[in-house]
Amino acid sequence: MITKLDPPAERDLPAGGAARMRVRLRFEMHGPALARRRRTGRLALAGVATLAAAAAVATPLIRDGDPPTTIAMGPGELTSSLTATAKACLHGYPDGPMFERQPRFPVTVGDLSVAVQHRGRTGALFLTDQGYVACSREAEPGHEESGGFHIELWNGTRDWLPGPVQVLSRSSSEAESGWVIAAGRISARVGRLTLEHGNGTTTAARLSDGTFGLLTRTDDVQPAAELVAYDKGGREVWRERFFKPLLGWDQCYTAPDGRVVYENRWHEEKDAQHSGEPVGTPEPAPEGPCRPAEAWKP
Questions:
Q1: Residue 137's closest CA among 128, 125, 152, 151?
Q2: Which DSSP state fits 49?
Q3: Origin, by domain of life (predicted)?
Q4: Preceding amide of 94 cis, omega within 30
Q5: Contact of 145 with 137, CB cutoff 8 Å
Q6: Chain mean position to CA 279
Q7: Are 92 and 100 in contact (CB under 8 A)?
Q8: Among residues 10, 70, 224, 252, which one has the fewest Cβ atoms lying within 10 Å of its Cβ?
Q9: 3-class secondary structure, 111
């Protein structure tokens, strides 16, 4: 049973609150990029902006009586509190002033693919034919509301994945540790997706219609945590460090017609280093031909 929720009193966002939000939540996103188009400088926090100004009044606080963990795969599974969260995520989009420099396309609550909730921590992912919107919020009693969003156009990548799993949003309570929220897309061959915390504990993701949602009940996820995918027969088909730097793909991927749909972003960043542009420090990428992209269908 969902506890009745009361909206918080209206209040103004304190000066500097937006900056503190991003530091405290460490909201990290990963979005597809147009092949053969340089997009340097879009690191883990690129495209992320704060939600509190839009959602401070629009979204109820989640109280201790709420279910400890909820994952809704699609609008048909939304609880009352997750519905409020989904609406707050889209509040002011696409015409609000804080979306001026973001891609703009129609998005509604009906486009929801994944919504997750753990106490006062929530996240939502919306997928449309044009692109996706992801957001995350933390609204716990005694703490300043925090969160962020990321909006990205598919740019020709909607029907393809860079491997069997594509993480589109990820957040953690600490720097590469703590409790985590993640959501993204999976190919048809993935039958199970599990987060190995790095200490013997595991959390299974929920899968539905080519998407996954994951939220841990505990705050013991370690920096060495790995996301592992299995096929429907139980065979491991993919394994990757969960907190891998979100700079892009370390391998290029092509469609069956030979078209490159995902560039090797590591080489792109390396070229930018030689050009004198400021970039992060990506992990080394293997040399070799492109791998086949995996088809995606919702």
A1: 125
A2: B
A3: Bacteria
A4: yes
A5: yes
A6: 22
A7: no
A8: 10
A9: helix
Residue 256: both structure tokens together: 């069956």
Provide the whole-model pTM: 0.73
What amino acid occupies position 119? R
Q: What SS3 state is found at 221? A: strand
Cβ neighbors of 235 (< 8 A, separation 6 or more) are none
Measured CA to CA, the distance from residue 60 to residue 104 in angstroms comes to 26
Range 264-272 contact pairs with CB under 8 angstroms and sequence separation of 24 or more: 264/290, 265/33, 268/38, 268/39, 268/40, 269/40, 272/38, 272/40
Return d(Cα 230, Cα 243) in angstroms, integer.
19
Is residue 67's pLDDT more than 50? no
Distance (Å, rounded) from C-alpha 267 to C-alpha 263? 9
Tens of pLDDT, residue by residue over 242-255, are 998 654 567 899 99
DSSP tag of 98 = G
Distance between CA atoms of 250 and 293, rounded to whole angstroms? 13
Q: What are phi and psi of 69, to 5 degrees?
A: -145, 130
Residue 151 · residue 128 · CB < 8 Å: no
User: Both tokens of residue 238?
Assistant: 């993919």
Question: Where is 82: in which H helix or E strand?
Answer: helix 80-89
Find the length of the chain. 298
Three-class secondary structure of residue 262 per DSSP: strand
Half-sphere exposure of 297 toward its Cβ, with a 13 Å CA cutoff? Answer: 2
Torsions phi, psi of 54, nearest 5?
-85, -30
Q: Tell me the residue type at 269.
A: E
110 vs 268, higher pLDDT: 110
